[in-house]
Design brief:
single chain; about 120 residues; mainly beta; Pseudouridine synthase; four-stranded antiparallel β-sheet; two-stranded antiparallel sheet
């Protein structure tokens, strides 16, 4: 049995089927002053989905759709995610890549200005 994560993301993901996200992931590297002897860069805590990154796969299935008010202006999806590979921030980055960042995730776009 693999790991399964319950998550809440912004927007309405399609319900009823497993979504397979296969965007490659790359850790961002930042220059370090005086770090030339050690390669001059360090790993940051951010990941981007882009060609040339390491292979990554996540399976996502929506469990329910939620709305925050009667007008249905704020829609959310409650979902289960299964990381097939185990990359840093994989689920967070893949959901943001789909345009549905996790709720309250400031690094990958899940926070609104008034959060």
């Amino acid at each position: 049995v693999g790991k399964r994560y319950l998550l809440l993301c912004h927007g309405r993901l399609p319900r009823g089927t497993w979504l397979q996200v296969g965007a490659p992931l790359r850790l961002l590297r930042e220059p370090v002053p005086g770090g030339e002897r050690r390669g001059g860069t360090v790993r940051s805590h951010a990941v981007v989905c882009e060609a040339g990154g390491r292979p990554a796969r996540t399976a996502v299935q929506v469990v329910a759709h939620l709305v925050s008010n009667k007008e249905g202006q704020e829609a959310y999806s409650l979902a289960v995610a299964i990381p097939v590979t185990g990359r840093t921030h994989q689920i967070r980055c893949h959901l943001a890549y789909l345009g549905h960042p996790l709720v309250a995730d400031p690094q990958y776009g899940g926070c609104q200005p008034d959060d």
